[in-house]
Design goal:
Blueprint: H1 2-15, H2 17-20, H3 31-64, H4 81-106, E1 132-137, E2 140-145, E3 154-157, E4 159-163, E5 168-174, E6 179-181, E7 190-192, E8 198-202, E9 208-213, E10 226-232, H5 234-245, H6 254-265, H7 268-271, E11 295-296, E12 301-302, H8 305-318, H9 332-343
Parallel strand pairs: 1-5, 4-10
Antiparallel strand pairs: 1-2, 2-3, 5-8, 6-7, 9-10, 11-12
Helix pairs in contact: 3-4, 6-9, 8-9
Bound molecules: dinuclear copper ion.
Dinuclear copper ion binds near residues 139, 218 and 222.
Length: about 350
């Protein structure tokens, strides 16, 4: 049985090799992902056994098929019905019933938000207050941290920090079309449906970076709508939280100061927020702590000087169709100052 498990695992790995280095349903780091993985593993093993038995019976039947028609007994003479009952009724009933109830049990990992208690089809799943609200946009993730008083709440984008070893309740909404939140190492997929809030509860069993992906086709840059979940030890997470609650760092160097002026006077401030400044546009990602993020453009490119400059001046070549226009009004000095300002927004 152990060998069979290993065989199925290596086959699964083989099929998923294309994305195994980044995201894999077999590389689980949370209880919900583990339950899903175990169920799919069990289903794969039962499927392999069933197929093996089926082919073995077929091979036996083919081997037995010898002689003329007269030598064989007519089919209506009886016998063989037991095979039909066992193989066609009892075995499928047993297998499908077991998977049905195991699948029902798995539903407790999918709490239903917004349902009244009497309507809750799944009593195992309570309806908690969300810690985080994620709003899907074409083609990035807006992330609202809802814990604490209103002055402690803040908004960020694309990089979702959570404390490890603790369940985090997330409400999922969409600002435009359907998206789907999927971080395979932590959980299954839950859709973001316009006008219908959904809910997911994720838990990371250890600290680490977990990559995910929008899993519902949502337009031309669907494939570049990546998710990064950063699970941290609770103390480190609290530190991150405290820093994110602060307004954007005021620049001190002359270059970063020049960059801030360029940001506020130019088109950037019309779409992006930097808390603590007059930049208050709400249609694009919040940049208050952009310097602390690992990637830009919904985790599509590393957050460094080169990519930031390229993104500002030529977003349409990096991510064609994105709502970020090519900003070509800055000269080289202004552009480098702008990037220096953004990078110090830690
Ligand atoms: Cu958002 Cu696909």
């Amino acid at each position: 049985m152990r060998r069979l498990c290993k065989l199925v695992l290596s086959l699964q790995t083989l099929f998923l090799a294309g994305c195994a280095s980044l995201q894999s349903t077999t590389n689980t780091h949370g209880p919900a992902a583990r339950s899903i993985h175990h169920l799919s593993l069990a289903m794969s093993i039962v499927f392999l056994i069933t197929v093996f038995v089926m082919w073995a019976l077929l091979a036996i039947a083919l081997k037995k098929r010898r002689g003329s028609l007269q030598e064989h007994m007519p089919i209506d003479i009886g016998g063989g019905q037991a095979w039909v009952v066992i193989g066609g009724l009892i075995v499928p009933l047993l297998v499908l019933s077991v998977f049905f109830f195991v699948g029902l049990e798995l539903l407790s990992d999918f709490p239903i938000h917004g349902m009244h208690e009497g309507m809750n089809m799944n009593p195992g799943a309570s309806v908690p207050k969300p810690d985080i609200l994620i709003v899907g946009h074409q083609w990035w993730w807006e992330v609202h941290y809802l814990t604490g008083d209103s002055d402690q709440q803040f908004t960020t984008a694309n990089e979702i920090h959570i404390p490890a070893h603790r369940a985090v309740n997330i409400e999922l909404e969409s600002a435009d079309v359907m998206h789907s939140f999927w971080v395979p190492s932590l959980h299954g997929k839950v859709d973001l449906v316009p006008g219908h809030p959904n809910f997911i509860r994720i838990e990371a069993s250890e600290p680490g970076d977990f990559i995910g992906q929008c899993a519902e086709y949502c337009g031309v840059q669907h494939a570049n709508m990546h998710i990064l979940v950063v699970a941290q030890e609770p103390a480190a997470f609290d530190e991150w939280l405290a820093n994110q609650r602060k307004p954007g760092v005021q620049p001190t160097s002359p270059q970063a100061l020049m960059g801030q002026q360029a940001f506020l006077a130019g088109p950037c401030a019309k779409c992006h927020v930097i808390r603590g400044t007059l930049a208050g546009g709400r249609v694009a990602p919040d940049l208050t702590h952009i310097g602390s993020r690992k990637y830009i453009a919904a985790n599509s490119f590393p957050n460094n000087n080169a990519y930031l400059e390229a993104w500002i001046t030529n977003a349409q070549s990096l991510k064609p169709g994105a709502k970020m226009p090519d900003i070509t009004q800055y000269n080289g000095v202004q552009l480098r100052a702008l990037v220096a300002y953004l990078r110090q927004l830690q």
